[in-house]
Amino acid sequence: MRKEILPLAAMEKLIKKAGAIRVSEDAKEALREYLEEKGQEISSKAIVLAGHSRRRTVKREDIRLAAKQ
Question: Who is most buried in 7, 11, 24, 36, counting CB within 10 A?
Fold first, then answer.
């Protein structure tokens, strides 16, 4: 069983901020799944970038560079 990190309420807020009037549970869950997966990918790349700079701390610039790749 997988433990989700992002709350569904935050997914609903994001979708409504984009203009939706109503949001289904499936839509919230799908967005959460996608964002968590993408966040994991970006984080993994950022960890490698920090390591190349001989740091154990992941910084904002690492995340930004990883997101562009």
Answer: 11
